[in-house]
Sequence to fold (1116 residues):
Amino acid sequence: MPKFVKRALLLLVVLAMLAVSLYGCSTGDTQTTLDPTEGVSGSGSEPTATAQSGELPKGNSVTVGIAQDLSNLDPQLAATAGIREVLFNIFEGLVKASPDGSVIPAVASDYELSKDGKTYTFTLREGVTFHDGKPVTAEDVIYSLERCAGSENEGTPLISAFSNVSKISAPDEAHVVIELAEPSLEFLYSLTAAIIPKDSGPTITDTMIGTGPFRFVSYAPQDNLVMEKYDGYWNQEKAAKLDKVTFKIITDTNALVIGLKGGTLDLVLHLPNTLENEVKDEFTVLQDTMKLVQALYLNNAVEPFNNELVRQAMYYAINVDEIIQFVCDGAGVATGTSMYPAQSRYFLPELADNYQQDVEKAKELLAQAGYPDGFSMTITAPSNYTQHMDAAQVIIEQLKAVGITAELIPVEWQSWVDDVYRGRNYQSTVCAIAADDMTAREMLVRYMSDNRKNFIAFQDEEFDQVLTQALASLDEEEQTTLYKRAEEILNEKAASLWIQDMCELAVMNPDLEGFTFYCTYVLDMSTIGYKQ
Amino acid sequence: MGKALLKRLALLLGTLLLVSVLAFTAFSVIPGDPTQAVLGMEATDQQIAAFRAKHGLDLPVWERYGRWLSAFVRGDFGQSFKYDKPVAELVISQIQVTLMLATVSFALILAISLPLGLIAARRPGGIVDRAVTVLTQVTMSVPNFIMGIGLMFVFALVLKWFRPEYVSLEQGLGPHLAFLVYPALAIALPKSAMTVKLLRGSILGELDQDYIRTAYSKGNSRGSALRRHVLRNAMIPVVTFLAMAIGDIMAGSIVVEQVFGIPGLGRMLISSIGNRDYPVVQAIVVLLAAVVVGCNFLADLLYRVMDPRIERT
Amino acid sequence: MKVKKKSWYLTIGGILTACMLAFTATGLFWTPYSPTAMSAPDRNAPPSAAHPFGCDQLGRDVLSRTLEGAGSTLTIALAVLVVGAVCGLVIGALCGYYGGVADALIMRLCDAVAAFPSVLLALVVLALTGPGKYNVIGALGVLFIPSFARLVRGEFLKYRDRDFVQSARLMGVSQLRIIFIHILPNIWPVLLSGLTIGFNNAVLAEASMSYLGIGVNATEPSLGYMLKDAQGVLFTLPWCTIFPALAAILLILGVGLLGEGIRERMGGTAA
Fold:
């Protein structure tokens, strides 16, 4: 009678055996990639992978976990921070970023800026070679810069700052001259744009030939990018310490943590600092700020946020320190204006103290503005950013005390960009704004009345005036003073409710050393190496 | 039968066409366009306009669809905006991974659910039946991302049976499959639970039919009644479910792919929807739809074979 | 074969469901704390006497949130199920019974919807209607129609040429009566399984939607949203995951067992 049950059981057993045998045959093959630090296996009976992994060396290589896919690798387009971080190791510009936010000479050894701020003259460094061994010539540089200015894109610049370029020329083999239409001190920062071999533009995403300390090996979308040390790097003092680096794309935060703990990842950047307890015992944990400003951005063009009093009342109603406590375990830095602390030359820490929570004062201001009983509003937030969603929820609780009822609307990221950022069709939003090119200017110009990035729709004559003056200035001292004045105006008018520069962690294998934080989108792998 | 088959095939193509139209219209309805993903958030209007003109994004929807369709039938899947690579080249490796994952998952589902379902239906109300019922219920009710992380935690960190790192086919078929067993398990467990439940319910329902009573009265044992009459009929809804499950597995492994870091079709689909990279989405949607619709077609064919009463003139 | 008088599933399922319903109902009227109230000192607090389920990363009481979340989830799941099952049942029954060109066309449309990525479909529905609870229900409900339609259609195909249907036809019983009075009761066992699975899937689908970031209003948590929210702190604050997950599991388990029990009673298959 139970014949068919027997058969079914038999099938199960056979399939189970099949699975086990597949597993069994695999353990032999995978062991070459196993990590010796993994220790003894947890279960004794199975011939597990780890049990056989004892003496295999890892080699002088490192695997880095990154949370975003890299997609289009064109180094001159480099649309996302994630791509820039990785490509920093493979490509270099005439100048390159240094940890403190300034730029240092790279493919160029030296430069000069004319008095009128319009002409940059670069001296090319001798002995710089591409990864295919060919030396970098003035022709390559001109080709690269012209490509940035749009020579292969029907005239539309790949990097928007290049729209200011009027002429690029090479008086001789060792010099390149860039002439600008408008004077600009900050154009120098855009010259971190990658120098690539002449005419390699159309194939650059396949060849990926640059001049950096690492050379590109392979890229598998959604899986990994591999690079190896470039032996012919021009600066042997700063040559890569590692032989091979693999960037592993893992989009789930928990999976990143499991990867670290399971020994497959050696370095992960941008982990939220709420995970600190999870990893601090086994790893080197480095803490840093994100170089951006998280805020409740109010649409200054709509009622009631077009009223300065209402904005100020709201700033008094919220408790910034408490938000930082909730969202970043207290490790974020309050900003009080549209500038982050890493811009130390321009940052004014005292502005953060101007709006200490004061519910009475907030109510008073609201009454003055004609809203004695508060009002209802919506906060739109990109749902994939936990820290913005959390901050929004804390703010909603805090606003209740002054009678303001806020509703949180989570939206998908692209919808946010389209509706809120580009369409300006919103009441308020919690998000973080960073400077695209890491300049102080970027953080402030978006508050100018007619700036296309002014999604806040802030309008103020005095601010416009001060900033216009600052932008035109060729004297750094004067420019700094004017920038600071502009920051103060923003704070007085409470254009936005700035909260903080958020905190983040870099988590590293304790056997490694040499990690350096940059105040730009850079993950410098060349300084990292195994401890001797 | 041949003519009916041809008709079904024509309908199948019609379905795919319908799906592609739906997907295309979807992109004109939802907010956002690919310029953000490609050019970055701060792209200038000039850059955006140039990009749109270059890729024909400024054309009306129907014209873009026409262009896409005529290229598609000629085997040209277009160019991904985000990756700046031909879609075909981009998707081909992902298909292999997802197919492999789906195959392993499907094998696991069969291996787990068929025996359990039969055992459970064998003695309804018995201890085995109850244990199976409760177990399947519990397995079914765990959200997939928790199941994935949980399995990873147990097998990779506690038991250390595998390293939480994707092993591609180039590194060898054995290791590739050995890695895929774990994510496949995360997919297969809830699906098997449902299959068990359905199979059991279906068998028990069938056992109650008149013709089975007749079979009993003719002196057939319960076992032989099950074997000869019930299974065939009871399998009909199960086969429907399994056929649909294949499509589900292909399209629904997104979260598991994300958790286990597998470069598969589902993950590509989600990130491409997020980037509004519609040539990629379009290709994947049609591809997945082809699998789903194909499986349903297969299920219909199986009906006819399994249940002769459905055969009509 | 012994006849069991007492239905084990019905008892256990009934008790579980009753408990969960009581739990959910409590949440409608009373929660120990406000589900959105935050308290800095209680951030990341493990379960204690004051907070039996602990607190989350924003210092909110997990018990209060679970109480309210269970209510949201139950409403969403039931509404989705009603939309999916009713539409699916009608479509499946008519298609299965009548067949023909309309059947083929409708089934192709069901195929198309089923084959369409749910995330994209949900995005479309939400783009057309704006975010919110009712729109989530609409988006999910549509997704559930094809599977019900197919299931019901398969059963109808099986029964429509059976003797009892043919004799009913000969006796001149109206078509609708045959469909709903004669055939429908026969497919109850399968439909019940489908319904319990559907309930299960509806709860999970809501969680998946939340995971992918297009769920309900965050100020009014559902269990799915809570699970998504706790995902980043799975290892550090396990109680934020365990309790809502447990609530979801018990809810599904109770309904599932109850379904088994009812089916057992009705069909008498335990005999």
User: Anything to note?
Assistant: Chain B has a mean pLDDT of 80. The domain at 96-262 of chain B is CATH 1.10.3720.10 (MetI-like fold).
